[in-house]
Amino acid sequence: MPRGRFSRFPVYIDPVTGVPMKHCHLCGEDKPLTQFTMRPEGPPASRCKACIAKVKREELRAMTPAERRLHYRHRSQMKKQKRARRAMEARYADA
After folding, report:
1. How far is 12 from 32, CA to CA, in rounded Å?
2. So what's the pLDDT on residue 92?
3. For the sheet containing 20-23, what is the strand order?
4. Of all helices (H) and strands (E), which one includes residue 10?
5. Secondary structure class of 78 (helix, strand, coil)
6. Whole-angstrom Cα distance, residue 73 to residue 78?
7. What is the pLDDT of residue 39?
8. Mean pLDDT across the chain, nearest whole number?
9. Under DSSP, is residue 49 helix (H, G, I), strand (E, B) or coil?
10. Considering just the CA atoms, what is the radius of gyration of the chain in Å?
11. Tens digits of per-residue pLDDT, 14-42?
12. pTM score > 0.70 for this model?
């Protein structure tokens, strides 16, 4: 399996288990495709879910308490906007 920055084979089938596998660019391990977030269009993410969570945790720990409050406030506002947008889309889809 060729490994490199621009690998031509990002997803492959494990010959032993028959499970689709992918190489995580952060931890360097080959993991099942279910361990990667799937994008709506295009290939799956280049980093596995565990690595993404680890990076997010480290970013939050590095923040000051004021930055953390601002982060969570912005996050809750974005969730409210997303809920409202989905409600509008559902309302128009029924019409």
Report:
1. 10
2. 75
3. 11-13, 20-23, 30-32
4. none
5. helix
6. 9
7. 81
8. 86
9. helix
10. 19
11. 889 999 999 999 999 999 999 999 888 87
12. no
